[in-house]
């Protein structure tokens, strides 16, 4: 999708997403022409006089309230998301939890999709419950039918599309329309797609959340999260961020900003390789089914095709097992048979990863019962080599009876 970018004071040009990623958030001539922004590390910031200090009458006042480095990242994310403001946090989980705390109070009711990231569920079931906030989980397929779950005290609806591990799609515009009729805030974890492939705020979401750990950073060595709000909901988010004092570090912000510059071309490779492998897996007898929104066979494919510009490199498949076989033993044999795929959490980096996902905590949706669910992160390796490695895993699993 082309983006209009201001080039001088009197004219503008339209640019594509990769050009936008290269330029967003920072002008080299703000810092003597250096193409990357400087890393400004700060806690204390000095004021020129007592009056300026008393009134906070300058742009920077203390390290927790931002530096030129963290501002450069926030401005880039604002542009990509179409947001009024962005906060940066030390992790994707922190981005979700601070967002919840910005809009929820004791006595409120929140609707959270049942396919939510597992650690967010833990936060809801422990801390939010302890704070007197009622959390209700809902089926991601509800769409406008979510209206039946609203109460007079429903203040927030949290979405995640595709859903964690099993990749169910959600009708975000329909959910947002219902939520807004009831005066509720709509938040979305958009880590899978990034704003390159889906811009939540354009579809009615109020706060778009990313684990920048994944594709923006891109190299499996940074933890960071962002939350970006529209104009109506920016102030409470900004205020909560300041009051909680949970902020991202300048060095990490620099690395994420550097990663953004190549995120578009990396996403293209992740998407193409993952789709090629997903289609190949669909043809194998070792696989019961493939859970990838970009496949026409996937139940939510029509929503993905309608709303999204592309996909990423993460999807799952159900390993085929015979009746009476041990799911865990089959899955572990498959994983232990791999050599190019690393066994590790997270995703979005350059190396391919695999793991068996646990779905026992879900309240509404049943986990697949036709075999263990294996999640793959398809990295930047050659597709042929990854297919060969997966065959090694299938061969190892076949030895387990």
From TrEMBL:
Organism: Microvirga lotononidis
Lyase in keyword set: yes
Cofactor(s) listed: pyridoxal 5'-phosphate
Single GO BP term: transsulfuration
GO molecular function: cysteine-S-conjugate beta-lyase activity; pyridoxal phosphate binding
InterPro entries: Cys/Met-Metab_PyrdxlP-dep_enz, Cys_b_lyase_bac, PyrdxlP-dep_Trfase, PyrdxlP-dep_Trfase_major, PyrdxlP-dep_Trfase_small
UniProtKB keywords: Lyase, Pyridoxal phosphate
Xref: PANTHER family: CYSTATHIONINE BETA-LYASE-RELATED
Name the UniProt record assigns to this protein: Cystathionine beta-lyase
Cited NCBIfam families: cysta_beta_ly_B, PRK05967.1
């Amino acid at each position: 999708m082309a983006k209009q970018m201001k080039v001088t004071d009197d004219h503008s040009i339209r640019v594509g997403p990769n050009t936008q990623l290269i330029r967003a958030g920072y002008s080299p001539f703000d810092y003597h022409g250096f193409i990357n922004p400087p890393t400004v590390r700060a806690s204390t910031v000095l004021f020129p006089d007592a009056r300026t200090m008393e009134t906070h009458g300058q742009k920077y006042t203390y390290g927790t309230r931002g530096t030129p480095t963290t501002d450069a990242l926030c401005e880039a994310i604002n542009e990509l998301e179409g947001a009024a403001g962005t906060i940066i946090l030390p992790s994707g989980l922190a981005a979700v939890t601070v967002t919840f705390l910005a809009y929820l109070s004791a006595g409120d009711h929140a609707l959270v999709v049942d396919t939510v990231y597992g650690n967010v569920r833990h936060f809801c079931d422990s801390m939010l419950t302890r704070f007197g906030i009622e959390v209700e989980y809902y089926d991601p397929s509800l769409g406008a039918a979510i209206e039946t779950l609203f109460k007079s005290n429903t203040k927030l609806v949290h979405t995640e599309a595709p859903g964690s591990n099993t990749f169910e799609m959600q009708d975000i515009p329909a959910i947002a329309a219902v939520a807004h009729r009831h005066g509720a805030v709509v938040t979305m974890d958009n880590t899978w797609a990034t704003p390159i492939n889906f811009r939540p705020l354009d579809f009615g979401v109020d706060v778009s959340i990313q684990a920048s750990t994944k594709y923006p950073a891109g190299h499996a060595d940074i933890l960071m999260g962002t939350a970006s709000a529209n104009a109506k909901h920016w102030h409470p988010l900004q205020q909560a961020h300041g009051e909680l004092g949970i902020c991202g570090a300048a060095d990490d912000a620099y690395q994420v900003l550097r990663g953004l510059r190549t995120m578009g071309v990396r996403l293209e490779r992740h998407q193409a390789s993952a789709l090629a492998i997903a289609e190949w897996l669909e043809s194998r007898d070792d696989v019961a089914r493939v859970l990838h929104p970009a496949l026409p066979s996937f139940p939510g494919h029509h929503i993905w095709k309608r709303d999204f510009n592309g996909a990423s490199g993460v999807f799952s498949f159900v390993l085929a097992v015979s009746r009476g076989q041990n799911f865990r033993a089959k899955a572990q044999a498959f994983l232990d048979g791999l050599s190019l795929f690393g066994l590790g959490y997270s995703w979005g980096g350059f190396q391919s990863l695999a793991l068996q996902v646990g779905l026992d905590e879900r309240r509404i949706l049943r986990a697949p019962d036709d075999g263990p669910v294996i999640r793959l992160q398809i990295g930047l390796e050659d597709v042929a080599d990854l297919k060969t490695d997966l065959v090694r895993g299938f061969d190892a699993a076949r030895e387990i009876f």
